[in-house]
């Protein structure tokens, strides 16, 4: 399954638009422009005469400004991140400051009768080096420059040196270069200050390709590449890093004019939009061969991404389809995140009524041709109906039956379906269904055991280093010094036509061994490989080489990690390898010696494996499995079938199949413990924690977070999403009894009482949890895309109070998962070890409702903390059934009140005495 366009969320714009008056239309308006902030997940949307700013991750509205006229073209100012520069229908240029919700007129037209419509081509260019804006009308002979701040540069009209019509404008995002595109395909680069000519981009005179002029510009974020989409449908790439720029790529994207060119930095892809709404995604490749001249026609290659299904985009995440389907007008792409906003053509009611019959015939033709979407029911809705009928026992229902129902539904919706406008703005992303965490760093988190704070010498033991991946480099972060070092280069060389992307990592501290899964994509397709690496534990051990085996997933088995399993590419074959049972120095040297003999690279013998002499034990799953995870039980592992269940597989030497030499592993759930998964739910991570009642697993899926026993009994589960990222959850970490997880906007914990409590908000939507160090949480975060930035990821820390998660964890665990522990001693050790000033009311609410020892602690913490009022302290004492403490608090208040010595029945203090009496009676 390849990459596909997915809807992250729909921004609700039904209550925004033009002025609401007595004669204003009741129907909502459709958004017609959008722009993203360069450094934050914030999007500005133009709808009617308003510009609305949203948080692109939570969907919350931040600000709304009425500009008085509709926006024709707009962009965020690169010199001031919270300011929008826009050209309006009244031909004025205005700046809109969302921080103050104020607008400023930068330029007014010479004639008050000048007016432009939304469909008029107006060119706008902003440079990050100066607070100025270049703008001009289509096919005019001059460009106007004006300052973007009050009292800045006055409007100046610039006559260009070429007497040709101007068809587009653009500024380089890093260099002081201003591009002017002329008719017939010529582009000239000027200095933004002196307007001196730097160079000219044009095809050779003898070229057979005829250009009509640039319709859109795009820029690479790190390389000096300029992408130009021509109005004749030609896509070009220029390398402007030298004094004489040279064309490095050219292809024909179609016959329609290209109106938008955008670079997706996280996926390294180029997206183009044509005037007819056609969307295409391109990969760029540079073949370096000294013996061959580079071919410009081989630079652009179509990416293996499914075409955007507009019905699916509109209906996913609680959206609704419109009839007939609209065309894409523009795609606003975030410059740093895998996020885009889709702007559709405004399908007016008259046009929809005129073309309804044609759209209906086309929908029916497609329906009978592929029995898929009819334009109203999307394919994912058809599949959901099939799955629902299958769960009800009606397994004889086929896709033809559902398609027939979709046809009848489509026929009915001809006169009843919503015909526009689209009052919600869909935010989309390119998702990899086989790796939902593709945009997020890969790391090996270090977890803290249940009683990590209760050591003999009262010193918390942390590991020496934490591991993460930067490309194909295994990096080590020293926890004491904070330094990052290259621990191992897992691949020495990679062919130029191959892309290497890390997916998963597993580390065994007992065996000192890494299992790293890489995705290798090339001209022949996508394959996976598992790199095995024994770390060097002794300076005298010179052998620390790695090896690789073909496989899509890998994990360790058993309590001592003395086995590891590799899931092969077909998703059904499993190979089990044995390791030395005790990770002594001799065992590590023996394992390293085996690796030295069987070392594998891209160049030679790709089928060899490091334990070929002993030979792996081969197993076969009855059905395809997506992921495998470790289990603390001997010779067992967890397997995941997406959308169906999580099961426990015992790797026993029985049930031999007659067709091959493998051993069969049943995936049927009859008579077995399993965890049922929701539709489209898949497991991302599984991490184990040891308790006095046995090991428990923290399970992170794309839809929820679970705590389960070793026998797959669900002990706790989350039920709500805290933001609308895709996927909703990113990483997970055990800190004693607290299961902490991260989403796109927050770090939260799942208590043992099925409740999720937020710890802190973050501004790192692509970060993952690495570990907890004292009162800090360590995060692995991708670095900002910058030409000077050599590192791909970095370590950041957030200061949090671990006292509250630990208190909530122990209190809820003892209440719902009772263990034989001295809770009073544990709570005393926690409160004496961590800062009690960080305690908040939500932790005291939980403690006061818990066992008696927790109630005593809640009362004492509330009385010791200056952040709590007397009213709060009294309430906690009542909840904890410590009525004497509550009475003493009320007595103290009464003695110091102005009503002493008589308390009137109408006073608030009297009512609190009455509440205490009622609580005593209950």
Please explain how this structure is put together:
This protein has 922 residues and is of the alpha+beta class. Among the domains are: 158 residues, no CATH class; 83 residues. It has a five-stranded mixed sheet, with no helix packed on it. A four-stranded antiparallel sheet has the order 1-28-27-26.
Poorly predicted runs are: 369-375, 597-613
The average pLDDT value, as a whole number, equals: 83
What is the 3D form?
A: globular
Proportion of strand residues: 35-45%
Q: Helical residue percent?
A: 10-25%
Rg (C-alpha, Å): 32 Å
Instruction: Please summarize the sheet with the most strands.
Output: 5 strands, mixed
Structural class: alpha+beta
Give the CA-CA distance, first to last residue. Answer: 61 Å
Count of extended strands: 56
Q: Major sheet: order of its strands? A: 37-38-39-40-44
**Number of alpha- plus pi-helical segments:** 12
InterPro entries: ATG16, WD40/YVTN_repeat-like_dom_sf, WD40_repeat_dom_sf, WD40_rpt
WD repeats: 251-285
Protein name: Transducin/WD40 repeat-like superfamily protein
Keywords: WD repeat
């Amino acid at each position: 399954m390849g990459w596909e366009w997915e809807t992250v969320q729909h921004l609700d714009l039904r209550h925004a638009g033009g002025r609401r008056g007595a004669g204003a239309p009741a129907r909502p308006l459709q958004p017609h422009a959008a722009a993203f902030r360069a450094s934050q997940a914030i999007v500005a949307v133009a709808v009617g005469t308003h510009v609305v700013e949203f948080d692109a991750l939570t969907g919350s509205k931040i600000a709304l400004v009425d500009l008085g006229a509709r926006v024709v073209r707009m962009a965020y100012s690169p010199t001031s991140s919270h300011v929008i520069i826009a050209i309006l229908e009244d031909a004025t240029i205005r700046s809109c400051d969302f921080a103050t919700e104020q607008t400023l007129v930068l330029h007014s037209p010479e004639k008050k009768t000048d007016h432009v419509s939304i469909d008029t081509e107006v060119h706008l260019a902003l440079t990050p080096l100066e607070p100025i804006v270049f703008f001009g009308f289509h096919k005019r002979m001059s460009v106007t420059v004006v300052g973007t701040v009050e009292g800045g540069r006055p409007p100046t009209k610039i006559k260009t040196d070429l007497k040709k019509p101007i068809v587009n404008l653009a500024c380089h995002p890093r260099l002081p270069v201003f591009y002017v595109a002329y008719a017939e395909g010529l582009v000239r680069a000027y200095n933004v200050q002196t307007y001196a000519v730097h160079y000219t981009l044009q095809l050779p005179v003898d070229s057979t390709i005829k250009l009509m002029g640039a319709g859109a510009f795009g820029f690479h974020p790190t390389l000096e590449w300029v992408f130009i989409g021509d109005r004749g449908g030609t896509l070009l790439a220029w390398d402007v890093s030298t004094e004489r720029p040279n064309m490095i790529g050219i292809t024909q994207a179609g016959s329609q004019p290209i109106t938008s060119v955008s670079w997706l930095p996280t996926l390294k892809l180029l997206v183009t939009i044509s005037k007819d709404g056609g969307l295409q995604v391109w990969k760029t490749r540079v073949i370096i061969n000294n013996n061959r001249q580079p071919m410009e026609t081989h630079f652009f290659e179509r990416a293996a991404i499914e075409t955007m299904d507009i019905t699916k985009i509109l209906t996913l995440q609680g959206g609704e389809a419109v009839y007939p389907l609209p065309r894409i007008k523009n795609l606003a792409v975030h410059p740093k995140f895998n996020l885009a906003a889709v702007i559709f053509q405004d399908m007016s009611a008259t046009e929809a009524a005129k073309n309804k019959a044609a759209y209906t015939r086309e929908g029916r033709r497609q329906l009978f041709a592929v029995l898929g979407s009819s334009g109203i029911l999307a394919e994912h809705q058809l599949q959901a109906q099939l799955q629902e009928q299958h769960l009800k026992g009606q397994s004889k229902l086929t896709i033809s039956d559902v398609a027939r129902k979709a046809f009848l539904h489509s026929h009915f919706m001809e006169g009843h379906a919503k015909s526009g406008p689209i009052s919600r703005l869909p935010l989309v992303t390119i998702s990899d269904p086989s790796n939902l965490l593709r945009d997020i760093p890969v790391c090996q988190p270090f977890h803290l055991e249940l009683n990590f704070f209760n050591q003999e010498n009262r010193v918390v033991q942390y590991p020496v280093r934490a591991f993460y991946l930067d490309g194909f480099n295994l990096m080590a972060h020293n926890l004491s010094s904070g330094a990052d070092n290259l621990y191992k280069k897992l691949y020495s060389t990679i062919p130029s036509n191959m892309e290497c992307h890390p997916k998963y990592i597993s580390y065994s501290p007992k065996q000192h061994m890494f299992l790293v899964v890489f995705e290798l994509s090339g001209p022949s397709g996508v394959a996976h490989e598992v790199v095995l690496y024994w770390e060097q534990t002794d300076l005298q051990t010179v052998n620390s080489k790695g090896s690789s085996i073909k496989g899509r997933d890998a994990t360790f088995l058993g309590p001592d990690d003395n086995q590891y399993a590799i899931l092969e590419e077909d998703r059904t074959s499993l190979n089990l390898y044995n390791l030395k049972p005790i990770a002594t120095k001799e065992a590590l040297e023996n394992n390293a010696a085996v690796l030295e003999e069987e070392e594998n690279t891209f160049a030679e013998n790709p089928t060899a494996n490091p334990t070929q002499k002993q030979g792996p034990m081969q197993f076969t799953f009855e059905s395809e499995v997506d992921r495998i995870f470790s289990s603390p039980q001997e010779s067992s592992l967890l397997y995941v079938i997406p959308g169906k269940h999580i099961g426990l597989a015992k790797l026993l030497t029985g049930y031999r199949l007659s067709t091959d030499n493998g051993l069969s592993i049943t995936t049927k759930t009859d008579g077995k413990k399993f965890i049922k998964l929701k539709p489209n739910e898949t497991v991302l991570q599984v991490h184990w924690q040891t308790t006095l009642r046995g090991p428990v697993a923290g399970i992170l899926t794309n839809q929820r977070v679970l705590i389960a026993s070793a026998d797959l009994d669900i002990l706790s589960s989350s039920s709500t999403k805290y933001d609308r990222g895709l996927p909703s959850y990113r990483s997970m970490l055990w800190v004693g009894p607290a299961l902490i997880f991260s989403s796109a906007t927050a770090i939260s914990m799942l208590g043992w009482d099925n409740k999720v409590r937020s710890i802190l908000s973050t501004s790192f939507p692509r970060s993952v949890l690495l570990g907890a160090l004292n009162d800090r949480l360590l995060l692995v975060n991708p670095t900002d895309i910058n030409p000077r930035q050599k590192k791909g990821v970095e370590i950041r820390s957030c200061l949090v109070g671990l006292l509250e998660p630990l208190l909530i964890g122990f209190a809820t665990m003892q209440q719902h998962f009772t263990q034989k522990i001295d809770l009073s001693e544990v709570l005393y050790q926690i409160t004496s070890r961590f800062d009690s000033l960080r305690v908040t009311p939500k932790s005291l609410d939980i403690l006061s409702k818990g066992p008696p020892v927790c109630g005593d602690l809640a009362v004492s913490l509330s009385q010791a903390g200056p952040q709590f009022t007397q009213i709060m302290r009294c309430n906690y004492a009542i909840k904890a059934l410590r009525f004497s403490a509550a009475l003493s608090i009320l007595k103290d208040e009464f003695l110091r009140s102005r009503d002493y010595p008589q308390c009137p029945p109408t006073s608030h203090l009297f009512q609190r005495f009455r509440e205490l009496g009622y609580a005593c009676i209950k």
